[in-house]
Amino acid sequence: MTAASASLALPANRSALRRARDWLANPWARPRFLVLVTWVYIVWSIAPVIIAIQFSFNAGRSLTAWQGFSLTRWYFDDPENSVWNDPALQGALIQSLKLAALDMLIATPLGVLLALGLARWRGYAAEAGNLLMLFPLVTPEIVMGVSLSLVFAYLFDFIEPSTTAQVLGHVTFSLSYVVVIVRGRLFSIGRQYEEAAADLGATPWETLWLVLLPLLLPAILSSMMIVFAISIDDFVISQWLSCGADCDTIPIRIYSATRAAPLPSINALAAIMVYFTIAALLIAYFLFRFLTRGERAAAGRSVVAEMGGFDI
Amino acid sequence: MYPRGLWPLFALPGIVWLLLLFLVPFYAVIAVAFGTVDPIFQNPVPVWNPLDWNYDYVLETLVGFLPGNDYWRVFVRTTEYVAASLALCLLIGYPVAYYISRHAGRTKSLLVALLVLPFWVSYLMRMLAWVNLLAPGGYVNDFLTWTHLVTTPPDWLNGNPYSVVLGLVYGYIPYLIMPLLASLDRIDKSLLEAARDLGASPFRAFVHVTLPLSKTGILGASVIITLPMFGDYYTPNIVSGSPQTSMLGNQIDIFFHGGPQPAIGAALTMVLSTFLGVLMVYYMYTVAKASREART
Q1: For B198-233, what is each residue's pLDDT tens digit?
Q2: Min CA distance, B233 vs chain A (Å)?
Q3: How many domains in chain B?
Q4: CATH number reported for the structural domain that contains residue A97 in this entry
Q5: Does A182 touch chain B if contact means CB atoms closer than 8 Å?
Q6: What is the Cβ-side half-sphere exposure of residue B34, based on CA atoms within 13 angstroms?
Q7: Where are the beta strands (DSSP E) in B60-168?
Q8: Measured between CB atoms, which of A125, A143, A258 is closest to B269?
Q9: Inter-chain contact A30–B103, Cβ cutoff 8 Å?
Q10: Which domain holds residue A129?
């Protein structure tokens, strides 16, 4: 019986409410209620951000009323308040990119080595290391922020609150993500390629460099991407280790601006961050596809999951 | 194949990093909380040796948590916000994850990509988006007055607990849906087919098969968002900014950035982490129990 003939059999004068209910709960059709919930959720999760980006193109100074379209006013044109011309906003953009780049350069190699070490090294010390590595993932950021700011104030007092302190903090919380992603890839490729290389006479160094590293490259790439994203997104650690206005990152700027009287330039700044992340994401996605070409066809589906790396 | 000692050597720099910048800092919190305060400059003096600890600040903080006292009220409020947000997240998140895992078919990759999208937008940006929407004269109030649902537009951004819960739900729900989806995906479909073959209605099959099998997933996803929500202070600050909606995280923030009293702030941080640690241990205990039951 199709949905259409089922509804024909019912009385024609049903109320609109009943009809809506029947349409949702029709047992012969797809689970419409779930479809509805899912799509409403997805629209709800994305629409506010799109509206916020839209207001970065507002021609006027309002963040609540649309006053016409201006492509570049809050990005370049406005002589005082655009991202390009306001030193505070420009500084925040540069600081965010600087922290993310340094974090990526330090946390990725450190995390890859740690992942290799922890995955292959057997013993109690390795298990303790594994446990220690998991803690930063479940520690609320405020606890890490407080502890790092206290240790830099009273123990390692040669490190002032500064960009250096911020980088150290960022690396500390991003390290574990790199380890989780790289370790997952290590387990999925197994040891047979390295054993084959050793059988064919490769030295340990050659095995590491010519076999294992190329196989790990997709995971290294996704962890770089993740590190970049979580570093540029981070607010708490950057704020607790900040040296004041000179250390402001984009999230800190947004945070202080929302309680003052924000201009669309703050939306433009936040939007620039979104453009950067999307660009980086696209580059990483195509590189990832390129590097894992020839692996199982199913790999395509796990790209998102593997790049997200949330299945801890 | 590889020389002995190569792997410990590889792990060494990372472990040293975590010891120096994760474990030692945590001990610094304890040392400050159990420390004293310089009588002249009023700045805290950490005490590193447990034998010389001064228990005043920690005791003072713990007394504050007794029912009826200041921190107790903040703690109850925080728990209420977190519980309401968690319940809403599960209520919205479970059907979404269930639909995508079970019925999405060809649209699955598209839907998963759309679900991941919020991860790539900064948390603060997403809060800013809601501040824009909820502002007086923003789209939300425009809509409410246009549809005549309200006559005077409500003030969303000054001490409104609903806005705080909305902010928390909006901020953390992506972190709940992804692990939930992963755990629902792992459920063996043949068990459901067996239930249906044996005459269970779709509803009974869901209640007796899918739901029990996704219990660990629900618990895990809930813990993943509960821990950071308890430490959150920026969400209430951005969407409300009023002492009436302040959470535990706000108290800690105030003791460090408002009127600086780091010793009490450190004691509060310690209490918070102990509480979250207990939650964590309970979660790991249930996971271990579930996997033991699955094996027998």
Answers
A1: 988 888 888 888 898 888 889 989 998 999 999 999
A2: 8
A3: 1
A4: 1.10.3720.10
A5: no
A6: 13
A7: none
A8: A143
A9: yes
A10: 87-293
